[in-house]
Amino acid sequence: MKRILVTYATNAGSTAEVARAVGDGLDKDGVQVEVKPIEAVTTLDSCDAVVVGAPMIFGWHREARAFLKEHQ
């Protein structure tokens, strides 16, 4: 079974809501999905794919950029 991590950074909580909705949608397709905040991710070893979400009000969110750079 495919395993997808949906991770997110948020300022006010709305990105967390969207991440949960994305996770729910993927889960309906029979995929094992884990949704968690970026700061809670310690490894990507068991993931087949990763979805990263973050607010884009003033450009890429600092935490999301750092996460992508670290795990590229």
Question: Topology, please?
Answer:
Blueprint: E1 3-8, H1 14-27, E2 32-37, E3 49-53, H2 62-71
Please work out how many helical segments DSSP would assign: 2
Name the average pLDDT: 90
Q: Portion of residues in helices?
A: 25-40%
What order do the helices and strands follow?
EHEEH
Main pleated-sheet profile: 3 strands, parallel
Unreliable stretches, pLDDT < 50, 5 or more residues? none
Order of the strands making up the biggest sheet: 2-1-3
Strand content: 15-25%
* Beginning-to-end CA distance, first to last residue: 23 Å
* Number of beta-strand segments: 3
Sum up the overall morphology in one term: globular
Radius of gyration: 12 Å
Label the structural class.
Answer: alpha/beta
Structure description:
The structure is a single chain. By secondary structure, the chain is α/β, with parallel strands linked by helices. It is built from two helices and three strands. Strands 2-1-3 form a three-stranded parallel β-sheet, with helices on one face. Strand 1, helix 1 and strand 2 form a beta-alpha-beta unit. The longest helix is centred in the first third of the chain and has 14 residues. The two termini are 23 Å apart. The model has no long low-confidence stretch (mean pLDDT 90).
Keywords:
alpha/beta; single chain; 72 residues; 2 helices; 3 strands; three-stranded parallel β-sheet
Summarize this entry quickly.
With 72 residues, this protein is an alpha/beta fold. It has two helices and three strands, in the order E-H-E-E-H.
